[in-house]
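Re-running the complex after MR caught last week's input typo. The corrected sequence lines follow. Everything else is unchanged.
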Amino acid sequence: MTRMLIAPPFAVLLAACGSNTGNQQGGQGAGVTGAGSTFVYPVLSAWAADYKAQGGQNINYQSIGSGGGIAQVKAGTVDFGATDQPLSSDDLAESKLAQFPIVIGGIVPVINVAGLQPGKLKLTGPLLADIFAGRVKSWNDPAIAKLNPGVALPATSIAVVHRSDASGTTFNFTHYLSQVSPAWKGAEGEGKSVNWPTGVGGKGNEGVAAYVKQIPNSIGYVEYAYVVQNHMPFASLQNAAGNFVVPSAQSFSSAAESADWGAAKDFNLVMTNASGANAYPITATTFILMPKTPANKAKSDEALKFFRYALSKGQGQAQKLDYVPLPAALVKQIDDYIGATIK
Amino acid sequence: MSATLAYPVEPGPPGFEGRGRVVDRLFHGVTAAAAWLVLLLLGSVAVAMAWGGRLAFKTFGLGFITGSDWDVPAAKFGALVPIYGTLMTSIIALIIAVPVSIGIALFLTDIAPRWTRGPIAIAIELLAAIPSIIYGMWGLFVFAPFMALHVEPWLTDHFGNKAIIGPLFSGPPIGIGMLTAGIVLGVMVIPFISSVAREVFSAVPPALKESAVALGSTRWEILSRVTLPYTRSAIVGAIFLGLGRALGETMAVTFVLGNAHDLSASLLMPSNSIAAAIANEFTEADTDLYRSSLIALGFLLFVVTFIVLTIAKLLLMRINRQLGRTH
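Corrected-run output:
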């Protein structure tokens, strides 16, 4: 019992020490700090390491989630924030922030059904919505069977896996479902977290991936990088043009190219349900948020230098980590935007 | 001077009287301060959480406790599902851990060969040292698939269609849910209950047991009529130490409970617990009401634990009164 009583204050003490050192680093002005989206963390940390190796400053990024990133950059505690859900122009103007995309990826429905190979199961958007809403309950439901003639579908119930935390991934996923399914839009709607009518919740992409791998006859949604790393079977989706596409670098960039970035003020654009013939329907973007008139100009300049590096030399590295580089026209547009808005 | 002390002090040897009293008073002050500090901390934590959750309590009133909706986009928060999940998983944990722990403790004190007692006791204490996230990962990667493939289908087949307990064992066997979480929690609290139980069993005066042997008692009679009655209050204390641990456990439960805000009678279905909901959702709680609701959840866990421990205390007092003891 004594052991239990001693432990908590000790933990508090350790935590206090930890945050002290963090503050000292911030206070000394060594490097740039950022916080936000967990999705962008792997590529951002790879860029930061390379950037530093080539003589740049330290980039300290904390992947605390999109919502946390927005809150922190608004409060001015970090030099930049990263979010998977773009802010509206009004919101940006009110909080005096600039916003631009940095990298593109896809969100993939992953399945765990014995005998189903990756991409073999075909699903449409409305059907995906019905599954996640619990209206289609069984794998051999006529609606699924009709789309997949010749595929052996088990007569078992579908176990739905969703996120337990609020997430930009969920925002993009439910934004897509709301666009293609009026029933979903009316009942669950879109958001970083929604009122899931069924299923189990995993924390983070890794939590959902782990649940789908462990629960037989389950379906979930994760970022593409997790599909590649975990070798998970996925479903192919019907896009707006009516074609069934599998998630891949090509189908993501096809979606990025067919999106009309030029018309989107402050890049406030969600790329789901893109119109291209081969476009993958649930393509997502991570956005960087920075103050238009930064309190610390030197740090802001250094951050911009880092992002310019990421958008030019860093894009090859993004590809290696299963993200999708931004189209050249978009990079040019971002460059102009940065020059015009961030002082 | 001695009038200010709360207890009588034996006069020290001549010449040392004055210094001895000063040291004694100092010692009294230090220990009292330590004791009051705990109460002060406890009180401040409770007040801080109630204050942080005031927005949620003001907005939803009693509905925060009785409501089963946890709808973030609609900003409607009700804590019934996490409260139910917390209590249910802890009850399952105790149903499993109490008999096993008492069995372990009795075996180690009275039945096991003397040379095995030390190693087994150390092994059990080491179980308590395993971080809860390890239990969570074991639960998810090893135990949940086992439950999904073997245990849960069997339960549904044999009990799912029975009259009263049927609803407890219905639903698809996904391996993640209250039953799995309860069993994992049970394994986690076994070392806590069994190591305390072992200590108190070995404190039973040998004379009592020897007398029972002399009267021709069997081993079972010694256990049930001497050891258990003699140690009853300490054992109840040990059980509630384990219960306290089960109620507040976060990491392991998050892995295997399913984190779903759905109210379901079935033990095989996913649910949520107070600690797991806070751990999952706090980082991205970006509205005041959402954050306040999560802090209010923390306050409720505090209240639930307090109520459970009070009931335990009252229970203990009643048992002791029936036995005609004073404490």
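None of the earlier attempt is carried over here. Confidence is low (pLDDT under 50) at residues 1-28 of chain A. Chain A touches chain B through 35 residues (CB under 8 Å).
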